[in-house]
Amino acid sequence: MSRVMAPPIGAIGVGHDRLDGREKVTGAACYAADTPVERLAHGVFVAATIPRGRILRIDLALADAAPGVLRIFTHENMPRLRPAPSPPAGQSLMPLQSDRVAYEGQPIALVVAATLEQAQHAASLIAAEYERQPSSVDFRSRLDRAAEASSFFESDTHLGNVDAALAGAPLRLAQRYRTADRHHSPLEPSATLARWENGMLTLDDATQYVWGVRLVVAEALGIPAERVRVRSSYAGGGFGCKGYVWPHQVLAAAAARELDRPLKVVLTRAQTFTSHGYQTASEQFVEIGAQRDGRLLALRNTSVNPTSQFDAYLEYCAIGSRTMYAVPAIETKHRVVHVDRGTPTPMRAPHDGVAMVGLEIAMDELAYAAGVDPLELRLRNYAERDPSTGKPFSSKELRACYRLAAERFGWGRRDPRPGSMRARRQRMGWGMASALMGTFRFPATARVTIEGDGRVLVEAGTQEIGTGVRTIIPQIAADVLGVPVERVRIALGDTTLPETGGTFGSSTTMSVGSAVADAAAKAAAKLTELGSSGPGDYAATLAAAGLTHLSADGAWQPEENGDWSMHTFGAVFAEVRVDEDLPVPRVSRVVGAYSAGRIINPKTARSQIQGGMVWGIGQALLEESPMDPVLGRYLSKNLAGYLVPASADVPELEVLFAEAFDPHASPLGAKGIGELGAVGVGPAIANAVFHATGIRLRDLPIRTEMLLG
Ligand code: MOS
After folding, report:
1. Whose CA is nearest to atom 4 of ligand 1?
2. Which of 278, 308, 337, 432 could form a disulfide with 343 if both were Cys (CB 3.0 to 4.6 A apart)?
3. Is 0.85 surpassed by the pTM of this model?
4. Atom of ligand 1 nearest to the CA of 350
5. How does pLDDT run across 402-418, given as a tens digit for each residue?
6. What is the pLDDT of residue 10?
7. With contact defined as beta carbons under 8 Å apart, do 46 and 108 qualify?
8. Phi, psi of 485 (to 5 degrees)
9. Which residues lie closer than 8 Å to 292 by C-beta, 6 or more apart?
10. How far is the CA of 394 from the centre of ligand 1 (A)?
11. pLDDT over 70 percentage in the chain
């Protein structure tokens, strides 16, 4: 049969349905907390109710006597944990190690019982007495204490003489922009199931990075990494909150060892607000100097974000200003304010997604000040090279994006006057913004096996968090080997498989995909050596050689970005409707066009971008985690008070791609798209609201009361 089959050229570029779709919708897919294990005990956290102070006493008497309780761990009996590198540890503060309380929600006890209900009940009986110390969770009132910090990128950059260029600029703008604290809120909360057998720890974990979990847990427990196996077959979203490693994973492993019994810890929805990081709020101070025609002369962007008392997490909220536009003088600066909260963490789209809010609303303001169309303003300032480094872009089809999206949207029919466009009793606003996202690549390895029946097994330890990995990775192998995608399956999410990086930074297609392509090419070469003339005879070739299967290992080691400035880009156009009487802003249309290299699967790629756009709608209009300044806690640790876009908030989202093979980003020509869609939508909506109402809002999310009166 297979001999007559025509080689299915081009599995890459075909919009295949998700190969794991059926497993997911039928409930067959096994998520971490679903893992069936005998004698499983259940752990429930008790969390600190104050943001800063000391635990004086924890009364365990009632809980100890409650039915089913196996053990209660506090700082008084939890074994000492060693510090682990951060990242991949999400925070440096190890749990249950002292009487110090450094944020509300910090675990102060872990109750383990035979059933979940027994553990929950016993946890409810635990009361702690604290010595409360003066605290502050409000970074905006403490900007004078902004401190230096450093992490992935430089915190400060300087190009040209910004002061002089600003002084000589005919048009000047200086404004402050704000974004809110936000939480990831994946459908599946973080969950860990830990069990020990013969000194070997297995963790079934909802994680974006099985090797990160292995490293941190092994370090914390003081055991060799080889004695820890971490698996993650499926994860119900992550968006960054499962990228690093948080207290529940370490505690589950440590407590299971103490009890010599398998233990499961699942965060409650409320605990997802405090038991892992969040996206920080930001204050972005943007100064622009321009010619009368809108050409930029100077750009200064200073950003401040809150962080915990014990870690200096930087959200690079000025980073987009380094690269987006051709400006001769650019200064960017990042600072943190330490407050009594947990440590923040990346969230889709980290850094750029927040950074482009201030810059892109500022560009809209400049467009009105200069009397230039907002799209034309972007084109006048188009960067042919990265202005900060002078390096060429590895690929950039942003001009095509602007054109494609503007045409599809109908931007040419826009009346620029605010309040001039209407749809029935509603004001209609059209706004646009550019999108920019950094390109992150990690080393990866993979194995490809041709099985005796000609089917193909791809093995790579990478995680599937909902992005489409179980489909696009088989497509890549199928493309190289010339076999139908349906004959390729993938084993992933396991530290016993070939090592890859984390499923973050929109990196998986480039990194894991390139390693898989390498392994597949090596497997094909071995088959050719055995006399194969193509995919039609793989099974026969193995049989003739007396082989049950044939495997090849592949790897990809990205070089430093070196001579190239590597980013993905987009152009986003949004339409909003604002009712005359009750001005609730509603998004009615979004069109985005994207430059992200070669697209491996247009269907899953579109889904990724649409998902990101939904995050942008949340950023613009809904998502915010306000804190009570006195109690130092989040006001709403639930999805009734923390609003995410529901279906009725999401209109038609049109996604276009301006494809280009980017040979510098990866041998596949692909770049990343997991986070790009979440960039630019927020400011495009804010700009559309200005166009609809004439009210300039620089503080996201936009709330109805801001548009009253
Ligand atoms: Mo993404 S915030 O890099 O998981």
Report:
1. 240
2. 308
3. yes
4. 2
5. 999 999 999 999 999 99
6. 66
7. yes
8. -55, -35
9. 170, 171, 370
10. 22
11. 98
C-alpha–C-alpha distance, residues 289 and 164, integer Å: 10
Topology given in CATH for the domain delimited by 351-440+563-707: Aldehyde Oxidoreductase; domain 4 (3.30.365)
Q: Which atom of ligand 1 is nearest to the CA of 345?
A: 2
Fill in the amino acid letter for 265: V
Check residue 190 and report its DSSP letter. -
Describe the chain by its helix, strand, coil percentages, rounded to 5: 30, 25, 45
Instruction: For residues 122 and 405, give the distance between their C-alpha atoms in angstroms, rounded to a whole number.
Output: 57
Residue 559's pLDDT band (boundaries 50, 70, 90)?
confident
For ligand 1, residues with CB inside 6 Å are: 208, 238-240, 243, 346-348, 350, 504-505, 675
Pick the atom of ligand 1 nearest to 440's CA.
Answer: 3
Helix (H, G, I), strand (E, B) or coil at 393: strand
Q: What is the mean pLDDT of residues 343-370?
A: 98
Give residue limits of the domains in the chain: 21-30+442-556, 351-440+563-707
Pairing of strands 296-307, 282-290: antiparallel
Q: Which of 702, 180, 695, 704 is nearest to 429 (CA)?
A: 695
- The pLDDT of 542-546, averaged and rounded, is 96
Q: Is the pLDDT of residue 8 over 80?
A: no
Extract the tokens encoding 501.
């990086």
pLDDT in tens, 102-113: 999 999 999 999
Exposure on the CB side of residue 558, measured as CA atoms within 13 A: 29
CA distance 329 to 335: 20
- How many Å apart are CA 410 and CA 400, to the nearest integer? 15
CATH 3.30.365.10 fits 21-30+442-556, yes or no: yes
- Active-site positions read 675
Give pLDDT, residue 152: 84
Pairing relationship of beta strands 296-307 and 329-338 according to DSSP bridges: parallel
In this predicted structure, what is the pLDDT of residue 151? Answer: 86
The predicted-structure confidence for 384-396, as pLDDT tens digits, reads as follows 999 999 999 999 9
Token pair 């992550």 is found at 238
Domain 21-30+442-556 and domain 351-440+563-707 have a common topology: yes
Cα of 674 to ligand 1 centre, how many Å?
8
Average pLDDT, the chain: 96
- How many whole angstroms from 195 Cα to the centroid of ligand 1? 28
Using the atom order of ligand 1, give the atom closest to the CA of residue 238: 4
How many A from CA of 374 to the centre of ligand 1? 30
The Cα 377–Cα 348 span in angstroms is 27
For residue 536, the CA-to-ligand 1 centroid distance in Å is 40
Q: 634, 627 in Cβ contact below 8 A? A: yes
From the CA of 208, give the closest atom in ligand 1. 4
Structure tokens at 632: 């130092």
User: Which tokens go with 154?
Assistant: 């430089």
Pocket test of ligand 1: the residue of 245, 246, 276, 348 to mutate, having most ligand atoms within 8 Å of its CB, is 348
* Beta strand 200-205 pairing with 228-231: parallel
- How many A from CA of 502 to the centre of ligand 1? 9
* Residues 352 and 616: beta-carbon distance below 8 Å: no
Mutate to test the pocket of ligand 1, among 675, 676, 679 (most ligand atoms within 8 A of CB): 675
